[in-house]
Design goal:
This protein is an alpha+beta fold. The chain has 1 helix and 7 strands. The longest helix is centred in the N-terminal third of the chain and has 27 residues. The N and C termini lie far apart (111 Å).
């Protein structure tokens, strides 16, 4: 009887392939076992605090909300007097591009300012007085004057 034609390397490769095939078969069987779960065990609920929980909400705690009460945008500003003189500090101004922002002293909001609306030259850190009007994208400062 002659020697086997399989070298040591060939035997090792066959062992690795067989082990890989067996591992794959085990994983396949494990996946099949996991797929037998029911739909209710996969559901998640959101409680009144916004946390995800596994228990359904209590119907007694249900709150009715009217559709009209839900706001999906920013509410309009009704209390802004456009002709009122306001004061603020220039938080950013780019001379080369000709625009910047003024931080309002009262409301602490940033208001856009363009170089065309300036009565005097301004730079960052200056205290200014200004009026506001509605621009393309929101409030814009007009009639901007440097305060001393």
């Amino acid at each position: 009887m002659g020697r086997s034609q399989d070298s040591f390397r060939k035997k090792e490769v066959k062992k690795k392939q067989e082990k890989k095939r067996m591992d794959k078969e085990k994983k396949k069987l494990a996946r099949k076992d996991n797929e037998k779960r029911d739909f209710d065990s996969m559901l998640a609920y959101v409680d009144e605090n916004g946390m995800i929980v596994s228990t359904p909400p209590d119907p007694d705690k249900k709150i009715e909300i009217k559709l009209e009460d839900i706001e999906t945008s920013v509410p309009p500003r009704e209390n802004i007097d456009k002709n009122e003189k306001r004061t603020g500090v220039v938080s950013f101004f780019n001379d080369s591009k000709g625009y910047g922002f003024i931080r309002d002293s009262e409301t602490r909001e940033s208001i856009f300012v363009h170089a065309n609306n300036l009565n005097t030259a301004i730079k960052e850190g200056n205290r200014v007085s200004f009026e506001t009007e509605m621009g393309k994208k929101g409030l814009a400062a007009v009639h901007v004057e440097l305060l001393k």
